[in-house]
Amino acid sequence: METATREKRIRVTSRIGDMPITLPSGVTVKQDGRILTVTGPKGTLNENVPDSVGVQIEGSLVKVISKTNLKKDKCFHGLIRALLANMVTGVTTGFTKVLHIEGVGYRSSVKGDKLELVLGYSNDVIYSIPKGITIECDAKENNIKVSGIDKAAVGQVCAEIRAVRPVEPYKGKGVRYLGERVIKKAGKSGGK
Question: Engineered SS bond to 81: which of 5, 17, 62, 183, CB 3.0-4.6 Å?
Fold first, then answer.
């Protein structure tokens, strides 16, 4: 009895990996060996696919299939499906994250392919904007809008900008994500 349940558990696949992806009009998916290419109106993205995962393209539906029943190979089933879904979203609508700068005199501006940050240091911080990423600064709201077609690249750029001046817990000054909740600590006076 125990071996039957163990076999049943082994055959279970990823719930996320089993969901098919519907391609919007104007988006094509091609697989050349281990490289998966998604092309859409906003650009082209590539991803390496492990040998243990297969991709079936049937018209406007794309399915990700696990080729083996090994646990280490099944781990990639849901991952590749999620990456493929993010690639499809990226080439159609793109991804955007907004950072907010809090602090007196803190500001940002874009000059060519550089982001200039004035964050209370003795010198301004100059950040080189990577290819495929667009940054817009709103001086009135003191926001930085980061957008691009690659979700991981947008998140990485935001993390690097935020790391220049992380939010300090006493006054809340620094760079944070828009809507991020910062818990402030009481000062040495005991919060009176």
Answer: 17
